[in-house]
Amino acid sequence: MNTAAESPEPAQSEPIALITGASRGLGAALAEALSARGYHVVAVARTTGALEELDDRIQAAGGRATLAPIDITDDNALRHLCRSIHDRWGRVAFWAHTAVHAPPLAPAGHVAIKDLDRTLAVTARATGVLIPMLEPLLRAAANGTAAHGTALFFDDPTMRDEAGATRKFWGSWALAKEGQMALVRAWAAECAALGPARAPRVVVATPRPMPTATRARFFPGERREDLARPADEAARILDALPAELLRA
């Protein structure tokens, strides 16, 4: 885990926000929004240059960030990340998971296996790897007065038509994203059954369409000016959360 040299060490009382998929789009917008709300942001993505640009914006606004340029399909890198967070801070107050891989749209009979494998690895499997690693860090956010940490995930209803069926040519994406959502919702139900005093809070939000690279792959030629700005969506989603979910 690489730390931006200019970012000061966070105080022990400062809440930690982990953003997986933080280099651009909604992930970057959430990183900036959470930093503005007093979190020290741990930003995870593959693209070092984009992370450094994010860090520049966070620092310019008076915030703090730690950069982790890793591929979330690398299990050992994820283990190192979570162990580093544990050793340095011991906890995560807020985890927002935006990392996905969007495959090309294709008929089911013409799906490229390499695209399918990458989509499943990034979108579904990495979620399954991260949850057991991060659950203890989210539980550790409790300090006797505050509840455990919060995990935030994102549904994508655009994969379904008006009747709720999967759209044609969207099979690869739906396989990965619906699988991710099934795992997340099961975890949410398990945590809810234990209650906020004993388990993290798991939240699923539904962003409005944004002019992201993922959206452009699915809707080429769409008018970007008609879509919501990631910064506006980040603010809307965070503002919709109960206040107690946004504190350490």
Strand fraction band?
Answer: 5-15%
Largest sheet: 6 strands, parallel
Outline: globular
State the fourth-level CATH superfamily: NAD(P)-binding Rossmann-like Domain
CATH architecture: 3-Layer(aba) Sandwich
Q: Roughly what percent helix? A: 40-55%
What order do the SSEs take from the amino end to the carboxyl end, as H and E? EHEHEHEHEHEHH
Task: Give keywords.
alpha/beta; 12% strand; single chain; disordered N terminus; 6-stranded parallel beta sheet; 248 residues
Please render the helix and strand layout as text.
Elements: E1 16-20, H1 25-36, E2 40-45, H2 48-60, E3 64-69, H3 75-88, E4 94-97, H4 113-139, E5 150-154, H5 171-194, E6 201-205, H6 213-218, H7 230-240
Parallel strand pairs: 1-2, 1-4, 2-3, 4-5, 5-6
Explain what you see:
The protein has 248 residues and is of the alpha/beta class. The protein has one domain (16-237): 3-Layer(aba) Sandwich (Rossmann fold), CATH 3.40.50.720. It contains seven helices and six strands; from the N terminus they run E-H-E-H-E-H-E-H-E-H-E-H-H. The chain has a six-stranded parallel beta sheet with strand order 3-2-1-4-5-6, with helices on both faces. Strand 4 (94-97), helix 4 and strand 5 (150-154) form a beta-alpha-beta unit. The longest helix has 27 residues, at 113-139. The radius of gyration is 18 Å and the shape is globular.
